Amino acid sequence: MFVKNTLVGLGLVIGALGVALPVCAEDARTATAAQLAALPSAPPATVIEAFHAGLLAAMHQGPAVGGEARFRKLAPVVERTFNLPLMTEVAVGQRWSGLSPAQQGKLIDAFRRFTIASYVNHFDSYDGQRFEVEPAPQPVAGGMMVLSRLLPRNKGPIALNYVMRETGGTWQAIDVYAEGTISELARRRSEFNAVLNRTGVDGLADRLVERAQSLIDQPA
Q1: Which of 10, 17, 50 has its CA nearest to residue 171?
Q2: CB of 100 within 8 A of CB of 200?
Q3: Is the pLDDT of residue 10 over 90?
Q4: How many CB atoms lie within 10 A of CB 149?
Q5: Whole-number Å distance between alpha carbons of 153 and 155
Q6: Which of 57, 72, 203, 207 has its C-alpha lying 20 to 30 A from 195's C-alpha?
Q7: Is residue 23 part of a domain?
Q8: What share of the chain is helix, strand, coil (3-state, %, to 5)?
């Protein structure tokens, strides 16, 4: 199955340098997008186009290469696309300022691995699907929203809208609205706080790492 049904279970990000592109008629366009997205001044829509190109490249590899191989391929893509440290901070909420730098770093690393693993699991093989990205993003509070759609071969379109924020001249995603209305970051904040209340920082970090590994190891 090329994309798991639980699209709202994604965690987010990108890095288009060195991404092998899918073999299709859009290679020239996605290659240009990937190169442009590597530049600090890349516009929001270009960043998302390159992210999608990276997803398609990993999907073309298929499940035969294994989850760990797809994880290594997608890691730089996700890290370039998403502002994972900021997303971790927002997901943790008010507790963040009270954590030590070591605790913050541990949570960021765990969230990074979980986010990448989510994409590895949900986008696991290629079956003719493609992405469309609206070239003109919409202004939102503190940034821009890039509207896009996943177009499966035999299903209706799935809206994936990315909230982008510019930091130091670089645009990165800080949230994704699956189906156009479901905020991934809001979901994570609710989950994180429940786990933090029960098991603390170490418990949350350990749980994220465990879930990430299970996603990587799960058969396609």
Answers
A1: 50
A2: no
A3: no
A4: 16
A5: 6
A6: 72
A7: yes
A8: 55, 20, 25
d(CA 213, CA 37) in angstroms, rounded, equals 29
Residue 2 covered by a domain: no
CA distance 16 to 51: 7
Whether 105 maps to a domain, the answer reads yes
* Residue 198 structural domain: 7-217
Question: What CA–CA distance (Å, rounded) separates 108 from 144?
Answer: 24
Provide the greatest CA pair distance for the chain: 51
Instruction: Look at residues 129, 135, 149, 162 and name the one whose alpha carbon lies nearest to residue 12.
Output: 162
Distance CA 38, CA 205 (A): 30
Contact yes or no for 171/165 (Cβ under 8 A): yes
**What amino acid is encoded at 23 in this protein?**
V
Q: How many CB atoms lie within 10 A of CB 183?
A: 15
Residue 39 binned pLDDT confidence (cut-offs 50, 70, 90): low
Contact 4, 121 (CB under 8 A): yes
Q: Distances from the Cα of 198 to the Cαs of 11, 110, 193, in angstroms?
A: 22, 18, 9
CA 36 to chain centre: 19
DSSP, res 20: P
N- to C-terminal Cα separation, the chain? 7
Structural domains in the chain (count): 1
CATH of the domain at 39: 3.10.450.710
In a domain, 1, yes or no: no
Write out pLDDT tens, residues 130-176: 999 999 999 998 899 999 999 998 888 999 999 999 998 999 999 99
